[in-house]
Design brief:
By secondary structure, the chain is of the alpha/beta class. The protein contains 12 helices and 9 strands. A 9-stranded mixed sheet has the order 3-2-1-4-5-6-9-7-8, sandwiched between helices. Helix 3 crosses helix 4, helix 4 packs across helix 7 and helix 9 crosses helix 10. The relative contact order is 0.16. Bound molecules: calcium ion (CA).
Length: 318
């Protein structure tokens, strides 16, 4: 029997974060210990509400949700050129949550949860890395105690999707790193066991739901299926494809089943000063003269999309 993995989700819901929360909470393979929220897709005031709305859609009220950083560490929060609707959830307008936020700040909930489950806790990092970087600055002793971070972060130039669907507001960057490149720099350099899932695999057109998937979702008539269908229709209506609602779920999918992605080990530098490349994650693949001071992390270069979508469908419809 496979071990049940303990997970903390740090997120900025956002449509794809909302689906990722549903996938994580409904999976038999995961035990969600805490959710922390951050400013990213939307301000933390909104993401803190949406995280709880999503839990209550699932009738879950016993997972602690802590509000995190309102701003990136040194920058202002940029506006996301990609809209998630007025409510950040494709205008689903779910009921206001009845559960309260915990009184702790997200940074402290991250630190305490890692210490409570030393060498057992996975972190799914689905937004800018602000909270996690701050937790590392405050309590660096937690870094080696984390089993693994699966972060939706970066774009590594491994295929055309790396930049064709770039989500940061410039030609080369991915949104989460673009919003808070200094935070990403801190986390990438920290030595934590980090798997970065970037645009190379997480905004791929092969992540799209098939026509058959959509029919199954329509026939399911459950709250979760309807919520997901509404998001798919929302992005389709704006000329985007359904991979947009699945981006963050790829980190959860990889924690559920590591074989959904293949990774390579690579040296990565984060661009924190560029004008047209701010937030670019530069992979140093040179044979000679590589910069040995760059941190080495695991980078997803390929995904088993069929297996991933099968996990999403089975789990969401359960
Ligand atoms: Ca997100």
């Amino acid at each position: 029997m496979k071990e049940i993995k303990k997970v903390l989700i740090d997120c900025d819901p956002g449509m794809d974060d909302s689906l990722a929360i549903i996938l994580a909470c409904k999976s038999d393979m995961l035990d969600i210990k805490a959710i922390t929220t951050v400013s990213g897709n939307y301000h933390v005031d909104i993401t803190s509400v949406n995280a709880r709305k999503t839990l209550e859609l699932l009738n879950i009220t016993d997972i602690p949700v802590a509000r995190g950083m309102a701003k990136p560490i040194v920058r202002d929060l940029p506006n996301d050129p990609f809209t998630h609707g007025e409510d950040g959830q494709a205008n689903a307008n779910l009921p206001d949550p009845s559960m309260e936020l915990v009184s702790q700040h997200a940074i402290d909930l991250i630190i305490d949860t890692v210490k409570k489950y030393p060498n057992e806790l996975y972190i799914a990092a689905l937004g800018p890395l602000t909270n996690i970087a701050m937790a590392f600055l405050k309590s660096p002793e937690i870094i080696p105690m984390i089993k693994g971070i699966y972060a939706i972060a970066g774009a590594y130039g491994l295929n055309k999707y790396s930049t064709a669907n770039a989500t940061g507001d410039n030609p080369q960057s991915e949104w989460n790193v673009y919003v808070d490149p200094e935070a990403a720099d801190i986390v990438f350099k920290s030595g934590v066991a980090l798997t970065a899932i970037g645009l190379d695999v997480a905004t791929h057109f092969d992540v799209n739901f098939t026509e058959q998937h959509l029919r199954i979702l329509e026939e399911a008539k459950t709250k979760e299926a309807d919520f997901l269908l509404n998001m798919i229709q929302f992005v389709n209506g704006r000329g985007f494809e359904s991979y947009c609602v699945l981006i963050d779920s790829m980190a959860i999918g990889a924690i559920i089943d590591e074989s959904t992605i293949k990774t390579l080990r690579g040296k990565v530098g984060i661009e924190t000063k560029g004008e047209i490349t701010l937030g670019m994650t530069v992979l140093d693949t040179r044979h000679h003269h590589t910069w040995n001071n760059l941190p080495e992390v695991d980078i997803a270069y390929e995904a088993d999309y069929e297996k991933f979508l099968d996990i999403v469908m089975r789990t969401v419809l359960k």
